[in-house]
Write a structure and sequence with these properties.
This protein is of the alpha/beta class. The protein folds into four domains: 328 residues, Aminopeptidase, CATH 3.40.630; 41 residues, no CATH class; 122 residues, no CATH class; 44 residues, no CATH class. 34% of the residues lie in helices and 24% in strands. The strands form five sheets. An eight-stranded mixed beta sheet has the order 1-2-4-3-5-9-6-7. Strands 15-18-14-19 form a four-stranded antiparallel beta sheet.
Length: 582
């Protein structure tokens, strides 16, 4: 902690000296105790816009609150849009959880230095930078003192939920909010080479000022995954060590570190998980909630600077790795869509911690966990960092979305998915999934009752496709994202986020007394079905006692059954069609 405080004092002194002739931020004016309110932050970026032609405050869409999504673009190539989009681009996002405000203040100071500090300004010779000052505007405006009960400052801060009380860092696939729609359009437009999302941690107590979540290497692919883990991360962490910033891989909030650390599962619902689906490596920066606010802000600045320095020195190589990964993706014949922590791959990490102990609670009189700062340790602890695929799906040539599901096509389109429309009514042989089973959460989660453990079977069907249906080739840059959304067994699929729940409810039915003689005739005439029926009764003692279930069994296998009940309405085209479907 002493080294961290010394680091802060030196950094803060540098900020003060540098800013003698420049307007100070609310963070600086308060001696590192306060964070900028929304209006103060945007006003400061307008001030930075006025200082230099290299900094421009832009509006990139609107949000649920009605306030715009701002992007502060810092570039020496602003006269040429094409040049901006061909150079390495680093995107920094702040205030997705506005109570975790460290990045809001860190980015204001960083932006000023990039524009006016000659040593940092040279980075702009090779790198363009985009800063989202506040992603969750409504949360930033909902200022209070106390909702982050575990957090050591600032004095006032924003709230986690957005204008509709969504946690925006769970929305990057389901896209329920206008905030997410604006971000996805921005991400598509600028195609960042590296993505940085600033946060503050919850959970265990330990000496580290900063932890970080890197994009899950296993999901980034064989080109980008090792490159991030073996090149980008070591570069950044070496820089943090030189600055005296105590740092570690992320410690999950419900883990006692000495028992082992597990790498965060970077699903597509999260910001960095979303970025990874487009071959963009990313980091969630997680400063430690119990450290002084000023120390946390300056640790965030240090991480951002080291990331920029990496891209300055290695941006061309990074962009080439992204291209190499895209070219490798084109060759993939199948894609993992579900993952599990690999317990067989053992690793360890040298960790500085405080020994966890128990004492009697003054509140309950029961045992209470605490971390003894008078009993520090430094030792190797288990580190489970590898996730292995548990389910693979073959890559279709294309997906077909009926025009009745236009909102699904629109969600994909916002993220840059290219699609055609079928020009004429036609018949095609396609693959279609039948939903066999799924589990549904008993409590709402981010506005949904999410499905999980989804199981499907594949049917080969001849389907009439209509003029105007959407045809989405998988041979495009966003193919990983397409499969993540449209394969129902994928953890964050649109199916699992409830966008197809109407197919899970039958629309027709029968009265038992009417269908009873019909069912008997069906069994009499269909020997194979009768054999299957008797086998089911023999194997399932519960089924054998349920009259309605037995009639349903026969009904669903008869000509009376609804053809589309439990049939997933997105089709897979598995081979190039000779028919004129375009």
């Amino acid at each position: 902690m002493r080294s961290a405080l010394l680091c802060f004092c030196l950094l803060f002194e540098a900020h003060v000296n540098f800013s003698q002739n420049l307007r100070q931020t609310p963070f600086e004016r308060s001696g590192g105790q306060e964070t900028a309110a929304y209006a103060e932050g945007i006003d400061y970026y307008r001030y930075l816009d006025s200082l230099s032609e290299e900094g421009t405050l832009l509006i990139e869409g609107t949000t649920d609150s009605g306030f715009p999504l701002h992007l502060f673009l810092i570039s020496k190539a602003q006269s040429s849009v094409k040049q901006i989009f061909s150079r390495p681009f680093v995107l920094v996002m702040n205030g997705i959880h506005p109570g975790e405000s460290d990045g809001i203040d860190a980015s204001m100071l960083l932006a000023r230095e990039l524009l006016k500090n000659p040593k940092l300004n040279t980075l702009l010779n090779q790198v363009d930078v985009g800063i989202i000052p506040f992603y969750n505007m409504a949360g930033a405006l909902n200022r209070n003192c106390c909702t982050r009960a575990n957090q050591n400052g600032p004095a006032m801060y924003g709230f986690r939920g957005n204008a509709r009380n969504f946690d925006l860092n769970r929305d990057f696939i389901k896209t329920d909010t206008r905030n997410t729609q604006a971000f996805q359009a921005l991400f598509k437009k600028y195609k960042p080479s590296l993505f940085l999302d600033t946060h503050v941690s919850n959970g265990a107590d330990y000496p580290y000022v900063l932890t970080y979540i890197e994009s899950q290497p296993d999901k980034l692919g064989s080109q980008l995954g090792p490159y991030q883990a073996e090149v980008i991360t070591p570069f950044i962490t070496r820089g943090l060590e030189k600055e005296g910033i105590l740092h570690s891989a992320y410690v999950d909030f419900d883990v006692v570190p000495e028992k082992g650390i597990t790498a965060f599962f970077d699903a597509g619902r999260y910001s960095t998980g979303y970025a990874a689906l487009f071959n963009c490596p990313g980091y969630m920066i997680e400063t430690h909630m119990l450290k002084p606010y000023s120390v946390r802000v300056n640790a965030t600045i240090a991480f951002l600077k080291e990331a920029l320095r990496f891209v300055y020195e290695n941006g061309k190589e990074l962009n080439q790795k992204i291209l190499d990964q895209q070219q490798e993706d084109v060759k993939e014949l199948k894609r993992p869509v579900d993952w599990k922590l690999d317990l067989s791959t053992k690793d360890s990490i040298l960790f500085k911690g405080y020994t966890s102990k128990y004492k009697l609670s003054k509140v309950s009189g029961l045992q209470q966990l605490y971390y003894d700062r008078t009993d520090p340790y430094e030792k190797y602890v288990p580190f489970l960092r590898k996730y292995s695929p548990t389910q693979w799906v073959s890559r279709p040539q294309a997906y077909i979305i009926p025009k009745a599901y236009q909102e699904i096509a629109e969600k994909l389109s916002i993220s840059g998915v290219r699609m055609d429309t079928i020009k004429n009514d036609t018949m095609l042989i396609v693959e279609q999934y039948e939903i066999l089973s799924y589990e549904t959460g008993r409590r709402p989660y981010e506005g949904h009752y999410v499905h999980d453990q989804t199981k499907v079977s594949t049917l080969i069907r001849q389907k009439k496709l209509s003029k105007g249906d959407f045809l989405i080739s998988t041979y495009q840059e966003s193919y990983r994202f397409i499969m993540e959304c449209l394969e129902p067994i994928s953890k964050d699929s649109y199916f699992n986020w409830n966008y197809f729940d109407a197919i899970l409810q039958p629309k027709e039915g029968f009265s038992d007394y009417v269908f009873e003689p019909v069912a008997a005739d069906i069994l009499e005439s269909d020997k194979d079905l009768k054999q299957e029926f008797e086998k089911k009764k023999a194997a399932d003692s519960i089924f054998a006692t349920q009259h309605q279930a037995q009639l349903q069994f026969i009904y669903r296998r008869s000509k009376y059954a609804e053809p589309d009940y439990m049939k997933y309405p997105i089709y897979r085209l598995v081979s190039p069609a000779k028919q004129n479907y375009k």
